[in-house]
């Protein structure tokens, strides 16, 4: 399995057995066990690599062996006895008791190297505290504990490649626990997409530095710190150049911080953590050995502190962190911001998530805000979509600050409209992340999205930083031109609103529109039909040139991508490759107008997700995985329970559908034709069903529908049709019926006596007569072919039965054909030669993506056509036209009323109404 499949499977298994256990407790259990397994594996690998045979570990790894204990403590920072190793638990799983796990965590604490105390001390206390919550007694607890260990043992923790898998699984589980943890989720997790925005902005600012210190004073799971580290590593190529500082108040979250950092294979010397209140117990450390004061100033601070939390303000004003003022006791947002700004180096950068209210709230916060603006600390403010964080739906921002800036303007970005709906939450898409990052790093202004605002303008707004004051991202209200509403035509100003298209497609506007006055125009008379307009726009020379230029912009990129990713697979740098290809994409898009670059980038990113996953597998597990297939496991009901069973095979890298399309072309096409015919037959059956009335469909014993009442029931149709056909007769049917009642030579006499019967339509037996079965079939055919009265139900039922038989046979034929092709595909993948495998990889990674990218110009032109049609329809009917139609309708109604007859009083009323409608009333 790839890491995504593994993470998904582990989450499903873990969530299935959670039962009523609180999500936070369960998080502490499964993530704690993962980390314990990781440390156990590292210790085993360490001693084996240092010459200890694995079979001798039981003898050497005990608390009495001071040499081995010291060796592990010096190199790893901890020591675990053999009896407490995760692998030992696995070997004796049936004997494992909850008390054993709790005792092992206590023994671990006792053997931590004092120099590594900040990393490992009490790191398993949340795990130990959660074990008793697994059940009401030791037996129930033990059963659940053993199930958990069976889940965790599938997670790889050995090779260097496994660190990435382990880290991914860990992050995946944390995010899913956060989604299920309600309001407490914010205590430990910042959504990955928000982390990426902050990481890319920070990474861009820090590029080129030899060593970097990063600090998060509210570290939670450390996912934010780790994303910053990855962004920096992509630019520097040296993960060991980063030192991580983390502080966390909540004990469980503090354990997550340390576990996540350690499991990413970060050197312990590069991890400095503290448990405590960042506001109440500031970072500057007193060295316990020298009693010296060490202030901490770092290259970057990143954080997602608790929103509007209460805090205990310092009793004196001497704390240098809060020189710009003290945040209110009920809302510590600016306290966190000032704390973090204080710990920045002069050339550092701060990225912090805050509630939207910090931009405009008054009192002490307004005073602090004024100081931050006046001293040029605020670099950018990014408005995020609502409902994007776990545990809260409030609007949030990312604020970017620096200690020293040459520019006194602030960039405002309203990114609140860019997201996709994922379940109950909103989520930034790849395109949204990229656009935010590019806008901030390039300090770009864009209508309805971002704007650089001078300090002078902010002063004029009394230091109110509310984004809508500076960026109006609202959609413009629909306007209606009075002249066009009365007399028709389209205002030139509304056509001008599409100037982006007209500038890029010269001459098209003049082809589509013709002027009626100086201020108004209309769509040409010969373009009012949909097809005519589409043809005129698409075939226009400017449109054709635009399409050619777009294709030309990507000319040769397929070869470059194929050579880089497929031929050069072994040389691909997984840390930097996505950025390199992304830059190539945007460079090519510079040659093309109109097209939204980020729409194209989203296509690239969607495809890259699969390509990146494949590359990880091929580089991590070897080229041989290209020929690997694996069981396709699905959940099916068995004895009332969901049971995982195999349903065919899947290609680890190469999809069966791609292989079939490229290598089993004839079979693939024939199967496609069969599927099309099946779909057509099913569609026709549905049409026949819909053509019948409720009365014709029947009810109860006479019903011809299934239990749901939404389709034919074959048995019901047959039962309804049989007696209807039985009543049909004809001279030929009468003769054939007589034939069925005779025997022997009499049958031949009937054949001879009735030449008018189409005997040739039946197949005779050796004696020259016909079997009863053949004759009955002929009678049925004759009855089915009868001339039925218009609107009769019989033809509908006959056609439906024939089609239902066809559907049944087609489904079986398709199933049989699919099974045959499926096995052929499996064999093909397992025996592929390298050249064919590479060709298929190019098809999957490159051709599929470029096909989708090449569809964008057509979508762009279609959007223009939609805009033109909207303008044409908007003023197609004038108010004058509506008035004329209303008058005509009133006159016609008045005339019809004049022809009515009835009681005197009724007629007097009708006459008066007719008079009003005709406009003749005095």
UniProtKB/TrEMBL annotation:
The keyword Transferase applies. It is an enzyme of class 2 (transferase). Keywords: Methyltransferase, Restriction system, S-adenosyl-L-methionine, Transferase. Residues 6-151 form the N6 adenine-specific DNA methyltransferase N-terminal domain. The keyword Methyltransferase applies. It catalyses: a 2'-deoxyadenosine in DNA + S-adenosyl-L-methionine = an N(6)-methyl-2'-deoxyadenosine in DNA + S-adenosyl-L-homocysteine + H(+). Residues 162-476 form the DNA methylase adenine-specific domain. One of its GO terms (molecular function) is DNA binding. It comes from the Bacteria. NCBIfam families: hsdM (TIGR00497). It holds the Pfam family N6_Mtase. This is site-specific DNA-methyltransferase (adenine-specific). One of its GO terms (biological process) is methylation. Its EC number is 2.1.1.72. Belongs to the N(4)/N(6)-methyltransferase family.
């Amino acid at each position: 399995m790839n890491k995504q499949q593994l993470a998904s499977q582990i989450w499903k298994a873990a969530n299935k057995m959670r039962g009523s256990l609180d999500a936070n407790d369960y998080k502490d259990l499964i993530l704690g066990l993962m980390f314990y397994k990781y440390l156990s594996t590292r210790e085993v690998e360490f001693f084996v690599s240092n010459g200890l045979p694995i079979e001798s570990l039981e003898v050497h790894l005990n608390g009495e062996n001071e040499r081995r204990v010291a060796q592990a403590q010096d190199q790893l920072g901890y020591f675990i006895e053999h009896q407490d190793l995760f692998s030992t638990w696995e070997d004796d799983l049936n004997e494992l008791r909850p008390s054993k796990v709790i005792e092992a965590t206590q023994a671990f604490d006792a053997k931590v190297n004092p120099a590594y105390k900040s990393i490992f001390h009490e790191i398993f206390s949340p795990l130990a505290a959660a074990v008793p919550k697994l059940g009401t007694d030791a037996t129930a607890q033990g059963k659940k504990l053993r199930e958990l260990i069976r889940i965790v043992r599938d997670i790889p923790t050995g090779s260097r490649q496994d660190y990435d898998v382990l880290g991914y699984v860990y992050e995946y589980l944390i995010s899913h626990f956060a989604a299920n943890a309600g309001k407490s989720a914010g205590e430990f997790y910042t959504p990955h997409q928000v982390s990426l925005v902050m990481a890319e902005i920070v990474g861009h600012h820090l590029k080129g530095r030899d060593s970097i210190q990063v600090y998060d004073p509210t570290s939670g799971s450390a996912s934010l710190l780790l994303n910053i580290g990855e962004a920096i590593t992509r630019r520097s190529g040296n993960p060991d150049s980063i030192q991580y500082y983390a502080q966390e108040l909540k004990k469980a979250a503090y354990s997550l911080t340390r576990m996540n950092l350690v499991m990413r294979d970060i050197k312990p010397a590069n991890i400095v953590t503290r448990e405590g209140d960042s506001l109440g117990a500031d970072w500057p450390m007193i060295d316990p050995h020298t009693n010296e004061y060490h202030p901490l100033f770092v290259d970057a601070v990143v954080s997602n502190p608790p929103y509007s939390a209460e805090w205990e303000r310092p009793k004196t004003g001497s704390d240098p962190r809060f020189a710009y003022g003290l945040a209110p006791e009920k809302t510590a947002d600016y306290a966190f911001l000032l704390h973090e700004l204080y710990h920045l180096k002069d050339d550092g950068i701060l990225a912090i998530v805050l509630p939207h209210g910090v931009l405009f709230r008054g009192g002490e916060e307004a005073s602090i805000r004024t100081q931050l603006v006046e001293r040029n600390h605020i670099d950018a403010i990014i408005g995020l979509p609502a409902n994007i964080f776990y545990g809260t739906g409030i609007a949030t921002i990312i604020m970017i600050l620096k200690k020293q800036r040459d520019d006194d303007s602030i960039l405002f970005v309203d990114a609140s409209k860019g997201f996709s709906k994922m379940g109950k939450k909103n989520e930034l898409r790849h395109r949204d992340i990229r656009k935010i990052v590019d806008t901030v790093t390039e300090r770009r202004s864009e209508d309805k999205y971002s704007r650089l605002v001078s300090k002078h303008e902010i002063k004029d707004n009394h230091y109110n930083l509310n984004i809508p004051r500076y960026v109006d991202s609202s959609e413009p209200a629909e306007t209606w031109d009075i002249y066009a509403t009365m007399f028709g035509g389209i205002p030139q100003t509304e056509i001008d609103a599409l100037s982006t298209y007209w500038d890029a497609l010269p001459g098209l506007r003049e082809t589509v529109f013709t002027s009626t006055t100086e201020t108004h125009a209309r769509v040409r008379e010969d373009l009012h039909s949909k097809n005519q307009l589409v043809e005129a726009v698409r075939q226009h020379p400017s449109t054709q040139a635009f399409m050619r230029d777009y294709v030309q912009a990507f000319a040769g990129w397929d070869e470059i991508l194929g050579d880089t990713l497929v031929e050069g697979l072994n040389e691909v740098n997984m840390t930097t490759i996505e950025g390199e290809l992304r830059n190539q994409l945007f460079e090519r898009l510079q040659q093309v107008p109109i097209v939204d670059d980020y729409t194209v980038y989203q296509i690239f990113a969607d495809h890259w997700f699969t390509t990146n996953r494949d590359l990880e597998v091929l580089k991590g597990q070897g080229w041989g995985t290209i020929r690997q297939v694996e069981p396709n496991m699905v959940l099916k009901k068995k004895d009332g329970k969901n049971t995982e069973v195999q349903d065919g095979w899947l290609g680890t890298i190469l999809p069966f559908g791609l292989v079939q399309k490229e290598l089993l072309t004839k079979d693939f096409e024939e199967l496609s034709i069969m599927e099309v015919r099946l779909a057509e037959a099913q569609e026709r059956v549905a049409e026949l069903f819909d053509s019948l009335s409720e009365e014709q469909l029947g009810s109860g014993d006479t019903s011809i529908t299934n239990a749901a009442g939404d389709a034919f029931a074959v048995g019901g149709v047959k039962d309804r049709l049989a007696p209807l056909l039985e009543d049909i007769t004809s001279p030929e049917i009468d003769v054939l019926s007589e034939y069925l009642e005779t025997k022997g030579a009499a049958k031949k006499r009937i054949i001879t006596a009735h030449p008018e019967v189409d005997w040739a339509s039946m197949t005779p037996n050796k004696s020259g007569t016909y079997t009863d079965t053949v004759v009955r079939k002929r009678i049925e055919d004759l009855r089915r072919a009868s001339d039925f009265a218009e609107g009769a139900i019989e033809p509908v039922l006959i056609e439906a039965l024939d089609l239902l038989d066809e559907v049944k046979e087609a489904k079986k034929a398709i199933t049989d054909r699919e099974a045959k092709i499926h096995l052929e595909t499996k064999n093909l993948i397992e025996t592929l030669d390298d050249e064919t495998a590479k060709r298929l990889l190019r098809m999957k990674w490159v051709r599929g993506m470029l096909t989708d990218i090449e569809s964008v110009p057509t979508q762009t032109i279609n959007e223009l056509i939609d805009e033109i049609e909207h303008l044409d329809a908007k003023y197609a009917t004038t108010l004058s036209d509506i008035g004329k139609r209303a008058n005509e309708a009133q006159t016609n109604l008045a005339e019809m009323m004049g022809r009515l007859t009835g009681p005197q009083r009724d007629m007097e009323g009708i006459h008066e109404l007719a008079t009003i409608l005709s406009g003749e009333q005095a």
